[in-house]
Design brief:
The protein is of the alpha/beta class and about 375 residues long. It is built from 18 helices and nine strands. It has a nine-stranded mixed sheet with strand order 1-9-8-7-6-5-2-3-4, sandwiched between helices. Strand 5 (about 105-110), helix 6 (about 115-125) and strand 6 (about 135) form a beta-alpha-beta unit. It is globular, with a radius of gyration of 23 Å. Mean pLDDT is about 90; it is low at about 1-30. The structure holds 1,4-dihydronicotinamide adenine dinucleotide (NAI). 1,4-dihydronicotinamide adenine dinucleotide binds near residues 112 and 138.
Length: about 375
């Protein structure tokens, strides 16, 4: 898969890592994202088109129900499993994937990225005709060319930056969530209005739909998964290990780490007071400690790792590695799970049974 990254993307990547902070800000101003809100979008374009939802999982259920409550009648497809039962319980008639692909004009493809290319090949592609639209909630399979729809088929992305459960809950409460919209090869601009209308139908334009690209969605998504979250996991484990080595009680450390909910409250305050503004909610001792030590947390070796992770994503090396892992039955994923669950933090969390249950209830 090497070579997936085009030259423009490569130079943009190099630019991002070599640029000064101010250069970054200036460029960001220059390419300020286009954001669409409810009033910018006309949903009439969906009136003459039949919408199909393939998959009734996290996103499928939320998007199907939101689209239905927005006044449309989506046709739902699911294989024979518990998700199919959920769709029936919610009042949908459930059909085979092939039938929905044959009968609708717009397919919202909402099954896991890992299984999409096989299902696309066997059950969707044979029924696609020119003018049909395939809508993804992630850029993965299109960016890495695991799915290459035929010419004439619209390929769009409506990717909520929100878990499915919240996509539904926010909609029901009259609220929205951010989402990325994009079109692949939309020379005559026919398909973007469909992406925007779908974004409105699921409730995203209440908060804002950002015009983006399949590539950008992959980059921001995988870079968070492979750099930001692993970094946070590793630092949390170090926090636990170092304090318990120094004789601190493992259950107290575990509670301080995440079960107290302070972590969640800090992230919430980042939204309400600003990423940096929330620091003012901490004592000055804390502010000084955080700001004076932050730079030490990014030594040059870490920056090398960060760049390597970015290169693996943009070149397609990670995609190839993950595809091979899946073909072998995911042995490394099982090993990594086994290994992490042996960490003393997992045991400490288990010992805190009652407190953990109360904490979980508070943040449900
Ligand atoms: P999920 O894991 O909830 O998908 C379950 C659904 O996929 C069920 O309907 C199940 O019957 C079906 N399914 C699973 N394997 C299948 C197979 N081999 N053949 C046919 N159907 C199969 O999926 P999720 O998390 O909703 O993801 C769907 C899409 O949304 C993906 O592209 C994902 O990247 C994207 N996305 C997911 C988010 C989330 O909240 N999980 C957030 C934003 C985007």
């Amino acid at each position: 898969m090497a070579g997936v990254l085009d030259q423009a993307a490569a130079s943009e990547y190099n630019w991002a890592f070599n640029a000064t902070y101010h250069e970054t800000l200036n460029r960001k101003n220059y390419i300020m994202a286009k954001i669409y809100y409810d009033n910018d979008v006309d949903m009439k374009i969906l009136n003459s088109r039949k919408i199909g939802i393939v998959g009734y999982g996290n996103q499928g259920r939320a998007q199907a129900l939101n689209i239905k409550d927005s006044g449309f009648e989506p046709m739902v497809a699911n294989r024979d499993d518990e998700y199919r039962d959920n769709a029936i319980k919610d009042g949908f008639e459930v059909h085979s994937i092939s039938r929905v692909a044959r009968e609708v004009d717009i397919v919202l493809f909402l099954i896991p990225d890992e299984v999409q290319s096989q299902v696309y090949r066997d059950q969707i592609k044979p029924h696609l005709k020119a003018g049909d639209v395939l809508c993804f909630a992630s850029g993965y399979n299109i960016y890495y060319k695991a799915i290459v729809p035929p010419e004439g088929v619209g390929v769009i992305m409506v990717a909520p930056r929100m878990i499915g459960k919240a996509v539904r809950n926010l909609y029901v409460n009259g609220l929205g969530f951010p989402c990325l919209v994009a079109c692949e090869k939309d020379q005559d601009g026919r398909f973007m209005p469909i992406a925007l209308a779908l974004a409105k139908a699921i409730g995203a334009t209440r908060l804002g739909a950002f015009e983006s690209s399949f590539r950008e969605e992959v980059m921001i998504d995988l870079f968070a998964e492979q750099m930001l979250w692993p970094g946070i996991i590793k630092l949390c484990l170090l926090y636990f290990e170092k304090l318990t080595e120094r004789g601190c009680d493992s259950e107290i450390v575990t509670t301080e780490l995440h079960l107290s909910g302070e972590f969640v409250e800090i992230v919430k305050a980042m939204i309400t007071h600003g990423f940096f503004g929330q620091l003012k909610l901490h004592s000055q001792t804390s502010q000084y400690g955080q700001l004076s030590r932050a730079d030490r947390m990014a030594p040059s070796e870490l920056l090398v790792q960060v760049e390597e992770v970015m290169e693996e994503i943009s070149s397609g090396r990670f995609h190839t590695e993950w595809a091979e892992e899946q073909k072998k039955g995911k042995p490394n994923l099982s090993r990594l799970w086994q290994q992490i669950l042996e960490h003393p933090l997992a045991k400490s969390e288990a010992k805190l049974g009652t407190l953990a249950k109360i904490a979980a209830k508070s943040y449900k």
